[in-house]
Amino acid sequence: MDPHHPEHPIQIIIDKKHYTAPQPVMTGAEVRQLAQPPIGSERDLWLVVPGKGDDERIGNDQQVPLKSGMHFYSAPSTINPGALRATP
């Protein structure tokens, strides 16, 4: 069996949408591009880590071994509390 082309498709979820990963190990940048529309640089990519309490931020160059059922989500890279607050 070729490790770069698994026998069974790897199904992952990115921002609540289902995708089939083309290979069992992808970089954060490749996962970002898999999402449709692709996740832009103004957002961070996160991996949900069940039971740990803290999710894992995935860097663009980080290698991620994928397993079916993994959940990823994107969130703004910078959070500006009160930015949308109306001025008095």
CATH architectural label:
Beta Barrel
Q: Count of DSSP E strands?
A: 7
Would you identify the regions where 5 or more consecutive residues have pLDDT less than 50? none
CATH T-level fold name = Ribosomal Protein L25, Chain P
Report the span from N to C terminus: 65 Å
Number of domain units: 1
- How much helical structure, as a percent, in the residues? under 10%
Overall 3D form: globular
The value of Rg in angstroms is: 15 Å
Number of helices: 1
Strand content: 25-35%
Task: Considering the chains and any ligands shown, give keywords for the structure.
7 strands; Ribosomal Protein L25, Chain P; 88 residues; 8% helix; 1 helix; two-stranded antiparallel sheet; mainly beta; globular
